[in-house]
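Input for the complex:
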Amino acid sequence: MKKTLLAAFIGGIILTIHFTLCALSALPVEHSAIGDRYTQPIFQQPWEKLGSDLPGNTMNLEFRRKTKTSNWSEWHDATSTYSYESSSQAERVEQSIVDELRWQLTHNLYSENGKTELQSITESSTYSKALYYVIRLGQQNDESPADSIQLRAAIEFIPEMSAAATRQLSYITFPPYGAP
Amino acid sequence: MIKRLFLYFDGFSAHRALRFMPRIVQGFLIVLWITTIPEHSLFWGNENVLFRFGLPDSLIDNAVLRLYYQPEIYAWIYFSHPLLLLAGLRNASISWLPRLLGWFTGMMLYQAAPGVFGWGAVLLLQFAFFLIPVHYETDSSIRKWFNSLSIAAMRIQTILVVSVVAVFMWGSSQWQKGESIYYLVHQPSEVRTFLYEASSGLKWLWKFISYVILLSTTCLGVCLIFRPTRYMSTVVILVLGSIAVLSFNNLAHGFAVITLALPWIDAREKYD
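Predicted:
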């Protein structure tokens, strides 16, 4: 009996330490950094996403290309242009990049002297991820290399629940990347 | 009181859920792996489309994030993962080894492309980790201790997930106004086409489902703990999980919700 109690006691200690650190990481509390150090990368607790507000828009990544011999192409969706459906994993990956881009646009988009400033966004790793995704997906689908490539975020606002269904589209266009 | 708690912990060593949980959780992971086959070269291997940046540098990070640094070894990891999971389905004393390797290869695949699986895979992999040492009907006292530890860990993890989600839901204006499901079904990459096409109509239904999920999540954390309400709570979770499997493009979400109910299912509690 004593051995059983001791074993249960040790188990209780292990579980208490583990889940206290997990709870610290999962909840928005003062010492969550201590929990994060323990839970990353193996015991991540990303449950915050399930209970948080969802975006009030749908966003897609679009691109256009220019080569030496041709002018700028039409705008294409980064994923569906290569025949991947909206339910595909490629689209899911595009959306994970778009989520980061949405965060960047919310926190780092500003205007100065009436001009939209995108520099801090284009310097971020998120923009690099988006650019890399578009370029590599083109390569995977045997597209010839482009001299320049330009991205834009196509944002469709979801009408409020109490409002009538409308279609509101907006674009944020990033500066071209590549040859001037 | 403390003694009763310890004996309760000890009683988990022969819990019926230990018999089916490794098979179900690893089975879910195998199904998820199968869904990645058509597009796997986009996310793993030399030709992948994901830009890797600013990763932490520690022994565990470097091991788990190996596919970031050496994408050329992806085939070894990618194709051995389902084989290890299959080998771990058996209820044998040596099953801890394929389960450990299956869990670790799963972690490597997940960490190399987190956007492919999402939070559902995180939960499934954590349950797979807790199930590594499980050996049902063992005579070894140390393995019985691990069995108890495993069930206790999975139950606490369930309570933690449900409680954290409930806390964030009550801090979200969309959940409080019953608008969350409305905004969710407007995301074509998240939900199946039939739901997306119905997203602009049926507003009363989206509101109703939002409130049902908010209230269920709030009550589940407590209702699971107490035996009289446990059976109904597991039924609610299984129903929500099954709906999630049918509704989301990402199967991992529904599988993870279903898995939350499994450590609480013990046939003896109902029929003895």
